[in-house]
TrEMBL record:
UniProt organism field: Halomonas stenophila
Cross-referenced Gene3D superfamilies: Vaccinia Virus protein VP39
A GO term, aspect molecular function: methyltransferase activity
GO terms under biological process: methylation
Alphabetical UniProt keywords: Methyltransferase, Transferase
Protein name: SAM-dependent methyltransferase
InterPro entries from the UniProt entry: SAM-dependent_MTases_sf
Pfam family, one: Methyltransf_23
Amino acid sequence: MMPSCPLCASPETAPYHRDARRDYRACRDCALVFVPAHQRLAPDDEKAVYDRHQNSPDDAGYRRFLSRLFDPLVARLAPGARGLDFGAGPGPTLSVMFEEAGHPMAIYDPFYAPDTGVLERTYDFITATEVVEHLFAPGRELEQLAERLAPGGWLGLMTKRVSTPEAFVDWHYILDPTHVCFFSEASFTWLAGRLDMRVHFPANDVVLQQRR
């Protein structure tokens, strides 16, 4: 039985690439490339990888990295807009940057800030930087995030995008064992249509979606 797409649930998936560690399949409907479920890491092994991350608000280089999402998004926000940083990781930093700019923030991370109560509130914007490539069920989870946005609210995502099968073979992004979903511009365009959102691509690894 062919594995269904974790973004759109289509059964129309096909082999895309195989390396020594994993298989990768591509969805014919939404263009997501993904690792089959049986080749994902167990939760403890996944967290062990994240525990090695050394991100911090005191790291100027990390702030510059996050500014690729922060700058185009903050320019679109009303003063005092309230946000959620989803998948904040062990060293929340983007939330600090938005708070410094006058935007109250909540954070959520299944391993490091697992208060699901914050997922029941409504926000003017939600961010997920270097997160969607880790999601096991991105279709369901991104739909749930979109539902927590106020009308006109923004969903800001940051992830490297798939370009071509040839480039995928030598792509550093697939070497991380916690990366299991790989989006293309076509995938995000499909998602925007599914969620009835407007989509913008301000940078090669940034996508902004606005709730109508």
